[in-house]
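Lab notes, practical 5.
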Amino acid sequence: MQVGLMGVQNTVLSQFLSNSENQFLTDLLSKITNIKAELNKLETDKEKIIKKIVSQNGSNNPKNKREYENSSETALESINIISKNLYDLLNNYNTISQLNSFIVKRCDESFSDYNFKEDIDKLTIKIKEAEELAEKIIEDNKKNYLIINSFLESENEREELPKEKFDINSIEEVTLETLKDNPVLRICERRVELPYTKKEVEDFMKEYPDDYKTPQDVISKEFITRMSIYKKHPILSRFKETYYMCRTKEMMSIFDSFNFAKNIMFRSDINAYIIAAVKSKKQLEDYIECLDKNKMDDFKYFKIIYEINPTVVV
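Output from the prediction step:
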């Protein structure tokens, strides 16, 4: 392979290629080597993820269990996506390498009936396609590595939560007698109170009778979250909340949930607590439509109340 790559740089063929195309062929061997090294590292990361999943003791909180399952799913899915991306790119590079070597060999053999210009045209097209693919893959893999590293580097957030003052005493306790729909998203300095329906709370009590004895147990664990969770890593928070909504509330597939969440994660105009508040993909899409059209008064699913300046939050 290396002889062929050098050959095209030292023959008349190079005049039919641009400087960037010649440089691409010069760097091709190192590109292939780098991809193989990255694939090996990816296998190591996969082993780390699996080891971390197996070693986790879990949590007594049903919501935390669901969130951890989602995080491990997305980390493994990211591994699979990156691997596929790299193999797609590697196949393109190998095709270019083979075509380049074929052209060089035919020219060196001085075949009089060989019209190498036609193959040069194919080569330039393949190089352009590979460069475009590489650009897309680099951007996509940045997102995937962000998800992987977040999972591998994250400590057990369940252990960190009690350290922060939650200011929960200011919340009026809800009982079976006072339980009713709460169509309000309330944004406070330290906490976020998510909207809920009476049926949702009752369903959680039925599904987790050992964990949730009262409506307040459900509300405190499922519908009240700390503001710091959303503010610390806003991009990842948007991804995690979108994935959680798709997988847990909509029961979408891992693949569909993953792709939809990646499309949302870099939308800095959407706060993660909004995503946590919506009940369905349609509600989120309707919110985005209202946001894009600057017609937030048309969003009717729940009321949003800020008890702090909205510019302060994520």
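Observations recorded by the TA: The radius of gyration is 27 Å. DSSP finds twelve helices and four strands in the chain.
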